Amino acid sequence: MKSNTLTIIKKEFARFFGDRQLIFTAIIMPGLLIYLIYSFMGTGIESMIQEGMNDNVTLRVENMPQSLAPMFDSADSMNISVVPVPFTQKDIDQLEDKNLNTVLMRFPPFFDSQLNSYDPQSGMPAPNIEIYYNSTNNATQRVYTMLTSMLTAYEESICNRFDINRVDETSEEPVSFDQATDDNIGAMIWSKILPMLILMMLFSGVMAIAPSAIAGEKERGTIATLLVTPMRRNELALGKIISLSGIALLSGISSFIGIALSLPKMIQGDVDTSALGFHYTTGDYFILLLTILAAVLIMASAVSLLSALAKDVKNAGTMVLPLMLVVMLCGLLPMFQNGASENLVIYLIPFYNSIEVMTAIFAHEVQWMPVVVTLVANVVYTGIAVWVLTRMFSSEKVMFAK
Q1: What pTM was computed for the model?
Q2: Count of structural domains within the chain
Q3: Residue 83: beta bridge partners?
Q4: Can you say whether the dihedral through the CA atoms of 242, 248, 250, 256 is positive or negative?
Q5: Which of 60, 57, 227 is CA-nearest to residue 142?
Q6: Does 11 reside within a domain?
Q7: pLDDT of 141-159, one tens digit each?
Q8: How far is CA 84 from the centre of its chain?
């Protein structure tokens, strides 16, 4: 009995360790996947923090008190330019522009005197320091956080003699210190979530059908029948890629509709989801549709090439896993970015270029040149894939490999 058990163990070990793809998928891939994703996330978070740290911010201070002036002596070393000038409501309203690296800070007149005369036990409102900023701008958010931390520490040292951004709840129109608009907040949320979800749903649709369409034909032996029919190989390759793209696109559209309907449920609670709705133009949706079409073409092309190399559907699924890793990493990028890149070279990178365009669309920052570069690049890559797949269909070594 023991010898039979050992025989089975040896047989299974020999089968497993004799298959390099199984070794890669079962042993190497999990650790590699975790290492790459967490390393990438760490790099992305560090990059996002550094981006906010390196941007210069103008801090306009009204009624700067003598007691707190030394607190801002080291501001230059933190890329903060302190300007002691008053500001108006118009200046506050301009902070709605998330590209404006400005923070406004107002102390009450004669702040030092008010601190000295204020009695925390009196029940009267404490002197209030107002800080106006835009939370969708990483740089101004950084400065706001730093200021509140410094002032809170100082407040604790003098026994709570002032407030920071106190809101009068009894007022008919309470003051809003965060000047980020609902559109800004909604665009930030959608631009970080939706590109990844759309890309993953599209790729899932391609993975569900592409391996069986080519590797499945090889496994069933029906590919030989197709290859002897009176059609050119490039027609067969183009037909495969376009049909797979069309089916995957329908799957992606279905997934996108499901995402759009479910997201308000995901973020419900204290958030006014009606204020975070989709405020996009017909042109935005048209560009999004073109981007999705181009993304599906390049996905179907890549998976088709890998499927043509595979011996069967199972083998094709194994070969597609590294590509899925690449798509996942590209999908994570928007979470660590403050908008889309302006470098046109970025839009020549397959998968990543589609993510960048989607990010720009949802962030209300879309520009035509990156869109054109992305669409042309993906169509060119698809044409190259059709040519390569045509050559593979003409190779008996590839099509009838055992």
Answers
A1: 0.69
A2: 3
A3: 60
A4: negative
A5: 57
A6: no
A7: 888 888 888 888 888 887 7
A8: 38
